[in-house]
Amino acid sequence: MLCRLSTKSKELPRAASPEEVGVSSALTEQFLHYIKEQNLEFHSFMVIRHGKIAVEWYNEPYTADTSHSMYSVSKTFSATAIGFAVSEGLLSLDDKVLDFFPEYTPKSDSPYFDKLTVRSLITMTSGKQTNMLEEKGKIDWIEDFINSPWVFEPGTQYFYVNENIYMLCAIIHRVAKTSVVDYLMPRLFEPLGIERPFWETDQNGIEAGGWGLYIKTMDLAKVMTCYLHEGKYKNKQVLPKEWVKEATVNQIGDIKMPSKDKDCCAGYGYCIWMDDTEPYSYRADGMFSQFGINFPSLDATIISTAAIPCEDEARAAIWAFFPAAFADENGNGVLAGLTNISKITSSKIMDGKKVPCDGQLWDRGYRPVASKHSVTESRLIGKTIKVRKKILLNIIGMPVSMLPLAVTFMMSDRAGNIDNIKFNFGDHECDMTWDEGDERNTVCCGMDGRYRYGTMTLGKIKFKVCANAEWIDDINLKVMVRPVETVGMRTLNFLFRRNNKVTITPTSTPSTYKIVDTLSRSFTEIIKNPLLSKICQKAIQIAPPLAEPKHYGKIV
In 3D, which of 210, 206, 225, 105 has the Cα closest to residue 162? Predict the structure, then answer.
């Protein structure tokens, strides 16, 4: 029988103050100071303890209502669907994968086919190594997986492959005869009060599994606290208890994990990572530092969304202040007092009286700077900026876009080639209109120190965006567009020169250099040959200026 909760009981309660549930306000604020000083772009941060929200912080323009790309945190949700299917007798972890897809005939006679199980998929020990990112819109994902080469015997080695988790979603489609989202709606999303989420799919409507899920910070907090409390939410059993116990402990035994990051080699459950911290913790983990971290012995959960390429850097920042900020049963370890960086709301005025209310610790985040007007604006009235195309970028499939590189890199259908740019300036904002691929978009940019919100469609995908613009001086205009449901921000710097010539300098947040640095370091873990690894590292160091060169145009 499926668990359903009343609407009023679906939200996590808030503590009147962090100290009420044994969380140090002072250390939390030091953490917020630290991430700003280190330029670590966290988008949201939440701490839940003893079932109550102690800290809830959003970095403007991100809010509690912002759905965010979860990247590989999606894997935990795919595994959760498998957990429900196991508990309902639809499948077992020891079922053979090929038995679910009888119409597919493997092209090779590998002896490993019979050893490929659901368990080897969910623990990343399938022995497969595939990559559908480049051509994912053009192939049958199931066929590609079945016919991809084996690297090792299933169950003998760990190898992180996104397509393993896609196959879990394909299996759910077969046994439940519905989509993963539809399957999870009455079992997980509705009982927790989570609105129907968006999840990217293949051409057949099967969820990507390993990525592509978009949910809110609060949604992830509900799911992780449900895992923390043995599958219960508001004292109602939502997740299968036995599944939670199995999923949150190391399931790969002594199999070595190929990483130098201690938090990425401490063990792997069912799409859940073990942490090398004291006390014991585990986490759902997504690219660009999306985290859901549980501390069972402390009855605490930490949630973050971010745009930080180097995930070990983001985790190190969290570990520097947590779990030190959690007090024990006697209150030891809590530092009292608040500084001016944050504010706590624990009361409100009703009928002229001050009364207690749900508390919230918050920070104002980063605001854009109010901009003065420029004499150049008159030159742009009714004019169009024609942009000269970069042939090399078109050849490699990375034309200049209004989307950050972290987003365009993951897209199978890239729009590309910004052109026919027009500006329309008002008193406190400006509209920027441009062509990109076959699509034409307009975004409104705040120029008064506040963002403007809107939408744009690129690569046939609609993005919710916020934007602002400012004149650096009379001839330099900076335009910043941020897709708020995913990571990153796109900045275009326009330099208006003589003879109606324009130089456009694109940059992305996270920066290309940051992404390249992260990739470079990972080569030493992926490529075992030291010489080949060094060659690859040197090769990608020239990527930033190639990926984001200056572009030239003319006002016509």
Answer: 210
